[in-house]
Structure formats: structure tokens, C-alpha cells
Write a structure and sequence with these properties.
Length: about 240
């Protein structure tokens, strides 16, 4: 479904992606792990056209992803993104946040969008909070609203950019439970995460990035359980002993 071919990306003089090659199959869950600044979030942002890249190509279902192409709006509806900081509209209720995209971007009927939005809020355990504003919700609840908002676009894949790193530890579990259930239903997911337990339990494959390159990739149990590269071993030792 997703092909990344020799992608390079620079911010000014700083090259943050140095020839990334990867692919994600339909229904696969792939976790990106690695130290801060290794290029993980930049890959996600390139995948849905939030960032441009200078070299190589990204294909989604054989369509070229490029921030400048007319099809980028349609590609973004197929590649929903869940951000670290929720990015909800503070002046709209949970339900209004969820139906915003379907109504204003896809032109869906408002009543139908509301019905589906309520179904999705119930799906993430927040049906009774539909009329609450973001300021009345906990961080974990806001992140679950953000996941419902992503699902409302009926995407082919969801990109998660460290979805639990801004949450209090006791709120992380509820968000990961929702993500686990999405994985079980066959949703294609690319997840930047520091949650090694989640990666081990849910991911089909893990990519370890460092310094803008993929140092190691493979089945989650192999990369996390018996990493081959010294850099991966060192990173996992630090993270797991933290």
C-alpha cells in the first residue's frame, strides 16, 4: 500500500532523511522507533504531504505523494494522521471535531456524519462525552477523540505520531487499547512510538531509525527481542531499562 523509495529530506543544511526505503502492506502495523531527531515524525509528515521531500518518491496505492500535486487533498483523506498534541478545535465539541472533516472536506451529509461520528465516539469509549469540549476532557480522552476524528474520514491507513507521549502514564493504556483493537480489525497503521510493549505485542514489523537512516528492520519479535545491530541493541537497552 505504501512505498517509500530512496527518500531524502533536508531542512536547510540539515539532512534529516538520508535515503529511506520502506514499504507497508495493506493491513500491516509497522512501528517506527528510535531516538528523538532520527527522522521518524518527518517520514509521517512526508507521507501525507505535510512536508515536501527533495529526492526519491513516495507512493500510496501507486499514487505519487507530493505536496504540490492536485491529488494531495484526496491522499490526505486516505492517510489520516493522529498527532502527539491532539490538534482538536477547542471551540467545538468532541462530536463536532469528529464530523468536521467528513462534512467540510468530503461533503458528507451532516446527519449521516453525526450518526457515524457518534458510532465512532462510542467505539473509542467516549459516547457519553460527545457534547464535551476539549477543555473538559483529559489528555487521554482528547487523544481518543482525535482517533475517532481520523476514523471518520474512512481512511485506508492511519499515521500515529507518538500518540501517547504527551499523556500522563495512567491515561496511556486507554489509547493503546483503542489502537490494539484497530490493529485487530485490520487497519493499516504506521506508528511512531516509544511504547516498546505495544510495538512488541501489536506491530507486524519494526523499523529502527537513527540519524536519518533505517539501521534495522524486521519482524517485531526479531528487532525487539534479538536485534542484530549494535546501535539497536544500545537503544533498546537504554529504553527498556529506563
Amino acid at each position: 500500500m505504501i512505498e517509500i523509495k530512496n527518500v531524502r529530506k533536508s531542512f536547510g543544511q540539515l539532512e534529516v532523511l538520508k535515503g529511506i526505503n520502506a514499504e507497508v502492506k495493506k493491513g500491516e502495523v509497522v512501528c517506527l522507533i528510535g531516538p528523538s531527531g532520527s527522522g521518524k515524525s518527518t517520514i509521517l509528515r512526508c507521507l501525507n504531504g505535510l512536508e515536501t521531500y527533495q529526492h526519491g518518491e513516495i507512493l500510496i496505492e501507486n499514487k505519487l505523494v507530493d505536496a504540490t500535486v492536485p491529488a494531495i487533498k484526496e491522499i490526505r483523506t486516505q492517510m489520516a494522521m493522529v498527532f502527539q498534541r491532539f490538534n482538536l478545535f477547542p471551540h467545538r465539541t468532541a462530536l463536532e471535531n469528529v464530523i468536521e472533516g467528513p462534512v467540510y472536506v468530503k461533503g458528507e451529509n451532516r446527519a449521516e456524519a453525526r450518526d457515524y461520528g457518534m458510532h465512532l465516539l462510542q467505539r473509542v469509549g467516549l459516547g457519553e462525552r460527545a457534547n464535551y469540549y476539549p477543555g473538559q476532557l483529559s489528555g487521554g480522552q482528547m487523544q481518543r477523540v482525535a482517533i475517532a476524528r481520523a476514523l471518520a474520514m474512512r481512511p485506508q491507513a492511519i499515521l500515529f505520531d507518538e500518540p501517547t507521549s504527551a499523556l500522563d502514564p495512567e491515561l496511556v493504556g486507554d489509547v493503546l487499547d483503542v489502537m490494539r483493537s484497530l490493529a485487530e480489525e485490520g487497519m493499516t497503521m504506521l506508528v511512531v512510538t516509544h511504547e516498546m510493549g505495544f510495538a512488541r505485542d501489536v506491530a507486524d514489523r519494526v523499523l529502527f531509525l537513527d540519524g536519518g537512516v533505517i539501521v534495522e528492520q524486521g519482524a517485531a519479535k526479531d528487532v525487539l527481542g534479538a536485534p542484530q545491530q549494535a546501535r539497536t541493541q544500545d537503544f533498546l537497552r537504554r529504553v527498556l531499562n529506563h
